[in-house]
Amino acid sequence: MVYLVGAGPGDPALMTLKGQALLSSCGALVYDHLASRQFLEWVPSACRKIYVGKQAGHHSMKQDEINAVLVELALSGLTVVRLKGGDPFVFGRGGEEIQALEAHGIPYETVPGVTSAIAVPECAGIPVTHRGVSRSFHVITGHTRDGEDCLPPEFETYGSLPGTLVFLMGLGQLPAIAARLIEGGMAPDTPAAVIEKGTLPDQRTVRAPLSGIYAKVMEAGIGTPAIIVVGETASFDMKCDMKCRSFGPLAGYRIGMVGTRHFTDSLGHALKQEGAVVSPILEMKVISHAKCPAMQEAYRNLAAYTWLIFTSANGVRLFFQEMQQSGMDYRLLGHIKFAVIGDGTGRELANFGFHADYMPDSFCAEALARGLASILTDSDRILIARSKGGSPVLTSILETAGLVYDDIVLYQVEGRLVREQRQADTEEPGDAKLPVEEGVDYITFASASGVRAYLSSGLNINPGQRTGKTRLVCIGDITAGELKKHGIKADITAGTYHIQGLVQAIADDAISREAEGSASV
Ligand code: SAH
Questions:
Q1: 485 among known catalytic residues
Q2: Whether pLDDT at 174 is above 60
Q3: Is the pLDDT of residue 281 over 70?
Q4: Which one is catalytic: 32, 149, 202, 407?
Q5: With left for phi above 0 and alpha for psi between -120 and 50, is residue 506 left, alpha or beta?
Q6: Keyword set for this entry (predicted)?
């Protein structure tokens, strides 16, 4: 069985309940470029996901090949969802796929979707009909293979149509569309609008008279997907400010993230709730050194240590994982006291059944070291198990206090460009190209190692459209200090060391910038 399902215009919440139910139970999903990755999250984990859209630098899969994929999957007994943007029968080539299924006697059903032809103008405040103003609307392709200028034959005749004209796939032909409508008798001052990424958080609209719309589009740098609307209602703006609707303070902001996948998944989720468009830029990978001779020696000498210091949740996790994997008994730690740098590290320790004996009030290496220096004595033996390149402040303070410690590398963190990795992991080029090419308003850093990886990656990120530059956001002082070492000032330092604090700091920045009127919409 094959279901041709309309995904709606972009915002995943605009998919039908029936479509969502089919996604969440299908055995195979065949999709091309998706406006949102959310759809992929609705399918069961065992579902086969087959991407048939444009590959970076390659052409799309030919329609015959897509038809063959659908037929083969269905004949193998799977319930297949063929997901299409908008509605499957509006310029979606759904009909061709159905003909192929019929030729093989495969049962199918179509599930309508909200078409972008109506929804995208609507979300930009443009009604396609309005009593007394527009009594009809016409949905026209702006790109055909055989027409002159890639436009449908006798295109001029559309210039004499009453009502609202909606062009899909027309952005590349906009100058010809405008010129030929005017040739066909349409007044050059007829209102026109172009809407980019309609219904998505980074939706943009430009409006101008038909004769000037192309210049306006070029000036704004409007890209695809985009819809062109021509007619009296194109000048309507029937929406209130986006921010009083459900979009959140970060609507339209692009945020690049540097951090472990675990961290950027959580941060990304929280930022999306506020309306941001997020994308991991560098994925930090944690590489364990628990098996290295120095750490193994430390495990053998646990009886000699009186304090164990953790400066990160990663460190805690890797330390205990190694004990578990090599069959060490936790009672080896029975006599040891634990110090943690902050909340998150403390919570991870508690996950392994141990409660921290010491945590400083402010979560930084210096406070940790000063606190310990005031309660430990020279008869204590301290084990610091932490990441390579950890702050030297910690050890220098302990040393000055005359305390005896072993500072051992338990792991190191390395950055990997997300773009490279996405292409290696999945068939889909995905949105990994987004940050560099489309610009980023903010980049978030959650560790000094992330800052170092970013600076040495040679990445050249374009400035964001909302902020006009890329603002650097650090989770706390240590991370910001790492930027400073390289002569760069962090634009925002959150200082709360947790995800909600980081999100709040960015939202506050965006709100105050907009209040100053410095952000352009
Ligand atoms: N079946 C789809 C249309 C497919 S043709 C539907 O019913 O909506 C693809 C064209 O749709 C794009 O070139 C663009 O013109 C338009 N489009 C689709 N989604 C869009 C969006 N979110 N914003 C602007 N245009 C969109």
A1: no
A2: yes
A3: yes
A4: 32
A5: alpha
A6: Methyltransferase, Porphyrin biosynthesis, S-adenosyl-L-methionine, Transferase
- According to the model, what pLDDT value does residue 55 have? 59
Q: Which of 15, 61, 169, 284 is catalytic?
A: 169
Average the pLDDT over each of 49-58, 195-204, 224-233 and give the range with the smallest value.
Answer: 49-58
Q: Which two tokens stand for residue 35?
A: 């406006």
Nearest-angstrom CA–CA distance, 493 and 472: 9
What is the band of 121 on the pLDDT scale with cuts at 50, 70, 90?
A: very high
- Which residue's alpha carbon is nearest to atom 16 within ligand 1? 168
Closest CA to ligand 1's atom 9: 169
What DSSP designation does 136 have? -
Portion of the chain with pLDDT greater than 90, in percent: 69
Domains of the chain, each with CATH number or no CATH:
1-113 (3.40.1010.10), 115-233 (3.30.950.10), 252-284+414-513 (3.40.50.10090), 285-413 (3.40.50.10090)
3-state secondary structure of 318: helix
Q: What's the whole-number mean pLDDT along residues 234-261?
A: 79
Tell whether the model's pLDDT for residue 452 goes beyond 60: yes
Predicted local confidence at residue 56, as pLDDT: 52
Task: With H, G, I as helix, E, B as strand and everything else as coil, classify residue 419.
Answer: helix
Ligand 1 lining (C-beta closer than 6 Å):
9-10, 35, 84-87, 90-92, 115-117, 120, 168-169, 195, 197-200, 225-227
Catalytic site includes residue 62: no
What is the Cα–Cα distance from 441 to 277, expressed in whole angstroms?
Answer: 10
CA 495 to CA 444: how far, in whole Å? 13
- Asked if residues 502 and 274 have their Cβ atoms less than 8 Å apart, the reply is no
Element (H, E) at 426: none
- Count of positions (residues) in the chain: 521
Residue 54 appears among annotated catalytic residues: yes
